[in-house]
Amino acid sequence: MIKKTRKERERAARKQLIIDAAIEVIKKNGFESATMDEIAKQAEVSKGALYLYFKNKASIYLAISERGSRLLTQSLSKILLFELSGLELIRKMGQAYLKFVQQNPIYFTAFIYYENLISDDELFESELAAACEESAREAMTYIVRALQIGMQDGSIKDTYDPKELGLIIWGASKGIIHMAFYKENRNHMKILDDVDFSLDSIINNFIEILGTGMANDQKS
Amino acid sequence: MIKKTRKERERAARKQLIIDAAIEVIKKNGFESATMDEIAKQAEVSKGALYLYFKNKASIYLAISERGSRLLTQSLSKILLFELSGLELIRKMGQAYLKFVQQNPIYFTAFIYYENLISDDELFESELAAACEESAREAMTYIVRALQIGMQDGSIKDTYDPKELGLIIWGASKGIIHMAFYKENRNHMKILDDVDFSLDSIINNFIEILGTGMANDQKS
Amino acid sequence: MIKKTRKERERAARKQLIIDAAIEVIKKNGFESATMDEIAKQAEVSKGALYLYFKNKASIYLAISERGSRLLTQSLSKILLFELSGLELIRKMGQAYLKFVQQNPIYFTAFIYYENLISDDELFESELAAACEESAREAMTYIVRALQIGMQDGSIKDTYDPKELGLIIWGASKGIIHMAFYKENRNHMKILDDVDFSLDSIINNFIEILGTGMANDQKS
Amino acid sequence: MIKKTRKERERAARKQLIIDAAIEVIKKNGFESATMDEIAKQAEVSKGALYLYFKNKASIYLAISERGSRLLTQSLSKILLFELSGLELIRKMGQAYLKFVQQNPIYFTAFIYYENLISDDELFESELAAACEESAREAMTYIVRALQIGMQDGSIKDTYDPKELGLIIWGASKGIIHMAFYKENRNHMKILDDVDFSLDSIINNFIEILGTGMANDQKS
DNA sequence: TATGAATGAGCCTTCATTCAT
DNA sequence: TATGAATGAAGGCTCATTCAT
Fold it and tell me: Which residues are within 8 A (CB) of A134 and not within 5 positions of it... i.e. 6 or more apart?
């Protein structure tokens, strides 16, 4: 029994090493130009071995996405442990998202690439894709939970459906962070150069706006 | 002089035809699988001619992005002509953005693809890339103008820097619309399946939240 | 001594199991697409074990041929036991050949494949190849015997050399049966579609022609 | 008009050159081990150019078969021009078949390989495959014609259906010649070593047997 | 300016065989 | 004897780009 479990562990560990290697290679040249040869070399493994652990190149990329989704979702899940108001939880989640993307830019790129990959039906029906979707749904649930908490503790309006609100926050945050991400990692996107504010400032202001609105005097 | 100008006009027209053809091809199979052969055939032009008008394949893709940026920016520019409050202008701009993406999904995909392309420095320094950036900056300016108008007419809080606020709106809208786009065009992204709300509802609510905030009773 | 013999018996038995497995795999997808992995799995044996019993993949294929040759030869050998005229024996042998191929199409395909394999000198000099050749020679001998019997009992002309005649019968039968085989097993070979006659009819007529000739009135 | 025709002629000529090259390569190492690289090198053409003229590796092989079928059929067709009895025509056709195979062994191997190739449906439905089938049918027709002539001039029994008889002759000849072919081209097939008779003798005797039968006194 | 045939580097994937355990 | 993970050479095919005409 133990023996089998050890084998499985080793196999899983090897898969992780390959994913690590793939990430390294992608960091250098991007997703499109990464080759199986390079990944194999980086992983110090034969090219054939890659196919022992992954069905094909796309599967490796999917696995990167899956790991990223999992890590991000884990990080969000821990925020719910804090004793904070719902609004504060949402704020913390936004910050966690930003931090995650800043520390793991490759995963964010993978998320974007993922959306291309799963146009392929076969891939879409794979276990890994299912895991990605499940992670995303889980992350979404944490956001909705925080919103529901906020609606109960009075920190968040209860005039919106929490699910729809969650979706809005999710999508908008992704957009903001995507923008922030490009500002930090590439030297293009000149629009961003006109504005000097730090990303943290932008994110914080974004969350504040989400909270209080940008309209003046909305009560009167 | 006139002769040369006519030649230039013809050349520009031919470029547009090639871009049209490329868009048609991409519509069928996506960016990654479009080939120069197909584009040439669709444009009813020889493959060699493609290189007479564009430096390489990436340039064609860049040109698609550029055209998309220009069209979107034009559409935003016209909104400033309306006699509306700043907040209303922003709302209208959001709706225009959504409409543009819904009617021209290919350009939106091109924007995303563009971000990949310009990792290549040589491309980044091209005229086309400059035009893209310029369009984006222009679009951004229209948003900032609308915000400034709103701050003057009192419909928008003046506690934020209009540029930063513009950036936030721009990024967040892009995120929301990206999400909406995938929900409409692909049948994956299971998170979205849990929520039934129409895109219009999501966008409108997003804009409303931007306007009024989602926090409850923040004055008291 | 006995111990060793048992080991040998077990080894031989295992070889047979592997051959069985290989045949099953080949039945599914043909010779060219059968892989050692599949054969090992089908044989419920490790891939490494395959190489304990056979030098390489070609050897397995050779072994299939060898078994086929042996079975066919056995079936021919039994015909000599009948108390029939030489001509009748030949007829019976032809029918036996047809029956064998119909019941064991895989062996027939293996014979054809075998002829490709033994282009490789190393393989050609193997024990298995020798066994194949020996079986074929044996089968040939049975045919020649039948012919000799026929020449003695007067049912077959003695104007031909029995060996040469045997060769002719052997080759021609193989051709007829090959054709018949393809007609049954594949849906191509459109020439065959123009003719409706049953295989049995063709074979029987072939044997009759061999016997009586197709020329008219050759005596007068 | 002429210009287009010339292009087409050049294209056809280039195709023939590639087929020539493929034949050369196959002569050296057999069908299975010939590679596109080698064929390209032999044809003094880039690998990519191969795919300009042929869809596939299989298509090249098919084209070899097609050329072989055409040549053989042409050679058979000319025999019908002779003023001979039907039986003599058949005999001449047999000899022509043998001569063809002796002079162009590669085509004969191609015929055998062809039967493997067209298991693939897509290939089977190709134009080239249709041409092969058509050639075979044409060859068959010539044989049947000769038989019909023989039945009219009294040189061949009219008790058989000419089509069925044609099929029998076709299949049997192929078998004999296949055997003869291996005897000449490979150094295996030890059965054949026991018999010293020349191929011509075997073929001639085969045709004679077909004509007169091997049975003694078949009238009584 | 226009053509499209030709190029050839490059990629993913397969699979027979080996070898440490 | 048995395993099966690992190897790595080999192969078919694609396609952006070039260049002779």
Answer: none
Exposed/middle/buried for B143, CB within 10 Å: 0-12, 13-18, 19+? buried
Where on strand F do bases come within 7 A of a protein Cβ?
1-20
Q: How far away is chain A from the Cα of B3, in angstroms, using its nearest Cα?
A: 37
DSSP three-state, residue A99: helix
Identify the pLDDT of residue C184. Answer: 65
Residues of D in Cβ contact (< 8 Å) with C214: 156-157, 160, 165, 210-211, 213
How close does chain D come to C97, measured CA to CA in Å?
Answer: 14
CA D97 to chain CA centroid, Å, is 7
Domains located in chain D, CATH noted:
1-54 (1.10.10.60), 57-214 (1.10.357.10)
Which residues have CB under 7 A from strand F?
Answer: A 7, 14, 45-49, 51-53; B 33-37, 47-48, 50-51, 56-58; C 7, 11, 14, 45-49, 51-52; D 33-37, 47-48, 51, 56-58
Q: How many CB atoms lie within 10 A of CB D30?
A: 14
Q: Name the nucleotide nearest B57; use CA and C1'.
A: F16
* pLDDT above 90: percentage of residues in chain C: 41
Q: Which long-range contacts (CB under 8 A, 24 or more apart) does C29-34 make?
A: C30/C109, C30/D116, C30/D119, C31/C61, C31/C109, C31/C110, C31/C113, C32/D116
How confident is residue D10, by pLDDT bands cut at 50, 70 and 90?
confident
pLDDT tens for D98-112 read: 889 888 889 988 988
Q: Which of B84, B168, B177 to probe by mutation at the A interface, max A CB count within 10 Å?
A: B168
Query: Is this model's pTM higher than 0.85 or not?
Result: yes
Which of B23-37, C151-165, D18-32 shows the lowest mean pLDDT across its residues?
A: C151-165
Say if the Cβ atoms of D216 and C156 lie within 8 Å. yes
Q: Where are the alpha helices (DSSP H) in C30-161?
A: 36-43, 47-53, 57-79, 86-103, 105-117, 121-124, 127-153
Distances in whole angstroms, Cα of residue C185 to Cα of each of A46, C105, C106, C179, D190: 42, 9, 11, 10, 29
Find the helix or strand (DSSP H, E) in which D43 lies: helix D36-43
Query: What is the per-residue pLDDT across C184-200, written as a single tens digit (0 to 9) for each?
Result: 665 555 555 666 667 77
CB B215 within 8 Å of CB A154 = no
Touch between chain A and chain B (3+ CB pairs, < 8 Å)?
A: yes
Provide the pLDDT confidence category of residue B212 given band limits of 50, 70 and 90.
confident
Contact call for residues C181 and D112 (beta carbons, < 8 A): no
Smallest CA–CA distance from A171 into chain B, residue: B176
Helix (H, G, I), strand (E, B) or coil at A215: strand
The pair of three-digit structure tokens given for residue C220, joined into one six-digit string? 């007068």
* Chains C and D, touching by 3 or more CB pairs within 8 angstroms: yes
Instruction: Return positions of chain E under 7 A from a protein CB.
Output: 1-20
